[in-house]
């Protein structure tokens, strides 16, 4: 039995308050996370072993859905596009860094410029998609006018299966660059002026200054920018849906869009097959997430 | 005297209740209706129609929910299983098959069999029939065909074609004049399905077309190749607008409005936006898709929109009365007139509105489609097959050389989709 200093017995709640309160605050969040995130993950694993149209009885088919994925051309197109997304989307990181460096100065009205650069991240992806669709429009769009003015032939970016994915990624880079920029701007605030001073005394400037003094200090910002960009690339969906609807003839699909298409869209309702795609996407994401967690763990330990 | 007055008053009262009872034999209880007619004009029409039904049945408690048309297509799966309404809109033919097979639609054959309704709706009976039973009633349908710029035709000295040769000759003249023959936007694929429907029905006939869509014929066959060969003639001429794969059907409208393209193979719903864009009835006209293989009976696409009673509905009797009301001749006449849905009434006793396109469409469907009436590619074929096939057609329209690959792919998909 625990007693207070004056010898009175205290309640159990009183004694454990310090330990319990955080859990009480966390409880709703944890419950929702378990119910809406963790549980559905296992549900998807399970569902991917069935053939089910969402209405009738689910039929157990074992690994048949995965076998079919193996033979499905559309799946490989999506997978290939996912890789292209992963690689090209990373361009947002250096682009964001350079814009941040450029904007990290004290000039009149710099806040306005910063806001203008940040603006694409605030507007909805749907709007970004529409704006770029008009920009690319082969008949009325401004892109072909520009190309024409320098003597280049017109291209139908969103209608050409070789260009379409790149065209959508460029649209996606616009807001993503803004996101990385804001991360770097905050990072730059934390750069130690004394180190810059010291570097300057040692004669470092320009690129050398950037490479040896600034960038190493931006490591945390780079890490976060890397995480959000990778995750952003893997879950790209809305731009594809808005700009091409997966077309032309399925050339711009990625895994998340293909999953939606087979499971939930107008002509779909193959829940098991969709779940199998989701599982594949989950495993790919898991590789990255594991890597992120591992490097974070290493970082923490090194301190 | 006094007692006599009393008796007559009583008699009068009795009489009043008796007749009153007979007349105000209104429905009681509840009626829950789900609609997908979310566009402003059809929505207003439907709400007006339900208000009239309410006025006839003052004691009935009607609850109407209008759901966005696209969202409805996914939500219907949920609400048919849990929380079913008493009446729901949907589409005929294969599009209703999944729900019929899952036992989610009520068998309403009793409304059709040997009744006046059944006789008057005979033309659409096939589209509502699966396994010899009827699973709903139609409330509207509309013709497909070639909408064209009469002024451009006049300027170039062309007349409405009736044969494939004339069609191609016309097209060549239009191309020579620096225009495109047809506008089309295939971004959402189904518009290409419309072209295939017509080319295949005209090349190989209605029965072959249906067999193909139901998995009884192979895609990689001489007959289907003949259809694609006809299509290719147009593609190679440069008959279709460029970059159609980037446009929706609405985004393809400006080409015909501005006169860059002369014609549009479309459903009658294209007329309203074309008129809104400023084309007058003198500039715009309609003709039936031409004959290709001589001797093959003409068949048409005429998609039918329908009302169904979910199997889990609570008030099926009220729902049946509502369906009877919807298909009755008068209601059919006014909901389909030019000011409302602007489509064709399903009841043979109704009259078609005085609209140039509706009259021509009705004439065509009632006198010149002996081959049969199809719903539409993505309603006649199973959804999954429709998706794969229409994607292949879009690819074919952009890269006609890929035909072998496309047909092989379709047969591979067909093997999986039709296996059961």
UniProtKB/TrEMBL annotation, chain A:
Cell location: Cell membrane
Official protein name in the record: ABC-type sugar transport system, permease component
One of the record's GO cellular component terms: plasma membrane
Domain annotation ABC transmembrane type-1: ranges: 78-292
Key words, A-Z: Cell membrane, Membrane, Sugar transport, Transmembrane, Transmembrane helix, Transport
Family, per entry: Belongs to the binding-protein-dependent transport system permease family.
Native organism: Roseibium alexandrii (strain DSM 17067 / NCIMB 14079 / DFL-11)
Transmembrane residue ranges: 20-42, 83-104, 116-136, 163-188, 209-234, 273-294
Automatic annotation (TrEMBL), chain B:
Primary residence: periplasm
InterPro entries reported in the protein's UniProt record: Bact_solute-bd_prot1, SBP
Keywords: Periplasm, Signal, Sugar transport, Transport
Superkingdom assignment: Bacteria
Gene3D superfamilies in UniProt: Periplasmic binding protein-like II
Signal peptide (from-to): 1-24
UniProt similarity note: Belongs to the bacterial solute-binding protein 1 family.
Ranges that cross the membrane: none
Signal as UniProt keyword: yes
Pfam families xref list: SBP_bac_1
Subcellular location: Periplasm
Highest classification ranks of the organism: Bacteria, Pseudomonadati, Pseudomonadota, Alphaproteobacteria, Hyphomicrobiales
Record's keyword annotation contains Transport: yes
GO cellular component, one term: periplasmic space
Protein name, per record: ABC-type sugar transport system, periplasmic component
Organism, scientific name: Roseibium alexandrii (strain DSM 17067 / NCIMB 14079 / DFL-11)
């Amino acid at each position: 039995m625990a007693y207070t200093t004056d010898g009175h017995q205290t309640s159990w709640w009183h004694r454990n308050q310090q330990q319990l309160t955080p859990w009480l605050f966390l409880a709703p969040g944890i419950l929702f996370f378990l119910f809406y995130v963790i549980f559905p993950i296992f549900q998807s694993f399970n569902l991917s072993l069935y053939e089910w149209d969402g209405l009738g009885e689910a039929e157990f088919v074992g690994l048949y859905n995965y076998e079919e994925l193996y033979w499905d051309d559309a799946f490989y197109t999506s997978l290939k596009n996912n890789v292209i997304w992963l690689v090209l989307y990373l361009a947002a990181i250096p682009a964001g860094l350079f814009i941040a460096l450029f904007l990290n100065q004290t000039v009149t009205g710099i806040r306005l410029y910063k806001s203008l650069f940040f603006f694409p991240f605030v507007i909805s992806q749907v709007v970004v998609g529409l704006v770029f669709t008009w920009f690319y429009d082969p008949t009325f769009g401004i892109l072909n006018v520009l190309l024409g003015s320098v003597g280049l032939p017109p291209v139908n970016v969103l209608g050409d299966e070789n260009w379409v994915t790149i065209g959508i990624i460029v649209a996606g880079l616009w807001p993503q660059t803004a996101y990385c920029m804001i991360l770097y701007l905050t990072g730059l605030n934390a750069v130690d002026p004394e180190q810059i001073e010291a570097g300057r005394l040692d004669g470092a400037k320009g690129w050398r200054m950037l490479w040896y003094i600034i960038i190493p200090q931006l490591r945390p910002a780079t890490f976060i920018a890397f995480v959000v960009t990778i995750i952003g690339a893997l879950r790209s969906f809305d731009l594809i849906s808005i700009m091409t609807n997966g077309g032309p003839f399925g050339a711009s699909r990625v895994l998340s869009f293909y999953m939606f298409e087979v499971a939930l869209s107008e002509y779909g309702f193959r829940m098991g097959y969709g779940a199998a795609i989701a599982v594949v996407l989950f495993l790919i994401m898991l590789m990255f997430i594991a890597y992120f967690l591992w490097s974070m763990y290493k970082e923490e330990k090194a301190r | 005297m006094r007692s006599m007055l009393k008796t007559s008053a009583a008699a009068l009262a009795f009489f009043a209740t008796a007749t009153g009872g007979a007349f105000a034999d209104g429905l009681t209880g509840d009626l829950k209706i789900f609609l997908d007619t979310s566009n402003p004009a059809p929505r207003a029409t439907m709400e007006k129609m339900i208000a009239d039904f309410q006025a006839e049945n003052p004691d009935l408690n009607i609850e109407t929910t209008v759901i966005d048309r696209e969202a409805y297509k996914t939500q219907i799966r949920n609400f048919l299983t849990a929380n079913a309404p008493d009446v729901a809109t949907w589409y005929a033919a294969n599009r209703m098959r999944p729900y019929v097979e899952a036992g989610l639609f009520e068998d309403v054959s009793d409304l059709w069999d040997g009744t006046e309704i059944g006789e008057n709706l005979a033309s659409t009976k096939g589209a509502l029939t699966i396994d010899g039973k009827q699973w709903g009633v139609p409330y509207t349908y509309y013709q497909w065909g070639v909408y064209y710029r009469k002024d451009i035709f006049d300027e170039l000295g062309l007349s409405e074609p009736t044969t494939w040769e004339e069609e191609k000759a016309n097209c060549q003249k239009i191309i020579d004049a620096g225009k495109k023959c047809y506008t089309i936007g295939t971004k959402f694929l189904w518009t290409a399905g419309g072209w295939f429907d017509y080319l295949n029905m005209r090349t190989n006939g209605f029965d072959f077309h249906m067999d193909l869509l139901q998995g009884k014929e192979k895609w990689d066959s001489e007959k289907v190749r003949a259809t694609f060969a006809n299509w290719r003639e147009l593609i190679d001429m440069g008959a279709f607008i460029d970059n159609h794969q980037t446009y929706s059907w609405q985004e393809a409208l400006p080409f015909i409005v501005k006169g860059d393209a002369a014609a549009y193979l479309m459903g009658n719903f294209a007329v309203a936006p074309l008129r809104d864009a400023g084309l007058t009835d003198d500039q715009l006209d309609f003709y039936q898709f031409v004959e290709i293989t001589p001797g093959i009976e003409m068949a048409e696409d005429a998609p039918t929109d329908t009302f169904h009673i979910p199997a889990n509905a609570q008030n099926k009797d009220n729902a049946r009365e509502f369906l009877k009301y919807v298909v009755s001749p008068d209601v059919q006449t006014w909901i389909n007139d030019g000011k409302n849905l602007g489509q064709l009434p399903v009841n043979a006793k109704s009259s078609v509105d005085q609209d140039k396109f509706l009259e021509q469409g009705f004439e065509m469907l009632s006198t010149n489609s002996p081959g049969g009436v199809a719903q539409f590619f993505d309603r006649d074929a199973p959804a999954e097959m429709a998706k794969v096939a229409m994607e292949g057609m879009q690819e074919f329209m952009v890269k006609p050389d890929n035909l072998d690959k496309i047909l092989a792919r379709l047969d591979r998909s067909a093997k999986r989709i039709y296996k059961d």
